[in-house]
Design goal:
The protein has 242 residues and is an alpha/beta fold. The protein has one domain: 3-Layer(aba) Sandwich (Rossmann fold), CATH 3.40.50.300. Helices cover 46% and strands 13% of the residues. A 5-stranded parallel β-sheet has the order 2-3-1-4-7, sandwiched between helices. A hairpin with a 6-residue loop joins strand 5 and strand 6. Helix 2 packs across helix 3. It is globular and about 50 Å long. 33% of the residues are buried. The structure holds BIS(adenosine)-5'-pentaphosphate (AP5).
C-alpha cells in the first residue's frame, strides 16, 4: 500500500504549489518523494520528464540530450509546453511539488504568469502562487552525493553508494533491480551543472526572496531531518494560502 505519512486518503491538506530549489545533488528528488508520501501531491521533475523524452527519442528528447549531456540547461522555450501540460492534469488540484523547475529567472516569471492565467482567472485550483523551499548544501558534500548516486530504473528510489547504500551492492532494496548511474553524473558534466546553477539558478532564489516566498533549509543533515524541516516549512507557510 502506498505510504501516506500521517494523512489518510480524503483528509489530505492542500499544499498548493511548492518549488524545491537547490544545486544539483542537494536532495530535491529525495525530498520531493518524501513530500509525495506525506501529503499525497504529485512530484513534477523536469529532469525526469526530459530524461523520459531522451529515452523515447522524441523530437524534444533529441534536442534536449545535447544540452543535458554537456551539463547545460535546456533552453527555456523547450520546457514550457511539457510543464504546462503536466500542471493541467487533475492530480495537481490540491498542489504539486516542482523539482528542477524553475531554474532561470525567465522560467520563474513564466510560471507565475501561467498560474495566474490558467488557474486564478479560470477558477481552477490551486489558487496561490508557489512557495519555495531552497535546500542548501556545501560543494564538497554535493560532489560526494553526485558521484555516488545510483537510481532504481523501476521504482525510481535514489541511493548513494557512499552515504545511503542499498542493503545488497548495486541492487534496489525494494524490487531487486540493478541500480543505474545517471549519464550526467560524470566529473566533467557535474562541474558544468554546478556552474549552470551558480550562473542561472541562483537569481531564481533572489526573485522569490524579494517576493517573501522563500525559506531555506539545511540540506546537509540526514534525509529524515531535512524532511522534518521541509514539512515544518510547509505546515507554517504553504497550504493555508490556497
Ligand atoms: P535534474 O534531473 O533536475 O538534476 P539536478 O538539478 O542536477 O538535480 P539532481 O537530480 O542531480 O539532484 P537532486 O537535488 O534531485 O538530488 P537527489 O535527491 O537525487 O536535471 C538534469 C538536467 O536536465 C539539467 O542539467 C538540465 O540539462 C536539464 N533540466 C532539468 N530541468 C530543467 C529546467 N527547468 N530548465 C532547463 N534545463 C533543465 O540526491 C543526490 C544524491 O544525494 C543521491 O545519491 C541521494 O541518495 C543523496 N542524498 C540526498 N539527500 C541526502 C542527505 N540528506 N544526506 C545524504 N545523502 C543524501
Amino acid at each position: 500500500m502506498e505510504k501516506r505519512g500521517h494523512l489518510e486518503e480524503g483528509t489530505a491538506r492542500r499544499t498548493g504549489p511548492i518549488i524545491l530549489l537547490g544545486p544539483p545533488g542537494a536532495g530535491k528528488g529525495t525530498q520531493a518523494k518524501r513530500i509525495v508520501e506525506e501529503y499525497g501531491v504529485p512530484q513534477i521533475s523536469t529532469g525526469d520528464l526530459l530524461r523520459s523524452h531522451v529515452k523515447n527519442a522524441t523530437a524534444l528528447g533529441r534536442l534536449a540530450s545535447e544540452f543535458m549531456g554537456r551539463g547545460d540547461l535546456v533552453p527555456d522555450e523547450l520546457l514550457y509546453d511539457i510543464v504546462a501540460e503536466r500542471l493541467r492534469a487533475p492530480d495537481c488540484e490540491r498542489g504539486f511539488v516542482l523539482d528542477g523547475f524553475p531554474r532561470t529567472a525567465a522560467q520563474a516569471g513564466w510560471l507565475d504568469a501561467f498560474l495566474q492565467h490558467e488557474f486564478f482567472e479560470n477558477s481552477r485550483s490551486p489558487k496561490c502562487l508557489p512557495f519555495v523551499i531552497r535546500i542548501d548544501v556545501d560543494y564538497n558534500e554535493l560532489w560526494l552525493r553526485l558521484t555516488g548516486r545510483r537510481t532504481c530504473p523501476l521504482c525510481g528510489r535514489i541511493y548513494n553508494i557512499h552515504l545511503q547504500p542499498p542493503r545488497v551492492d548495486e541492487l534496489c532494496d525494494i524490487d531487486g533491480s540493478q541500480l543505474v548511474t545517471r549519464n550526467d553524473d560524470r566529473d566533467e558534466v557535474i562541474r558544468e551543472r554546478l556552474l549552470a546553477y551558480e550562473q542561472q539558478t541562483r537569481p531564481v532564489a533572489e526573485y522569490y526572496e524579494e517576493k517573501g516566498r522563500l525559506v531555506s533549509v539545511d540540506g546537509s543533515l540526514p534525509v529524515d531531518q531535512v524532511a522534518r524541516q521541509i514539512f515544518q516549512a510547509i505546515e507554517t507557510h504553504a497550504g493555508d494560502r490556497c
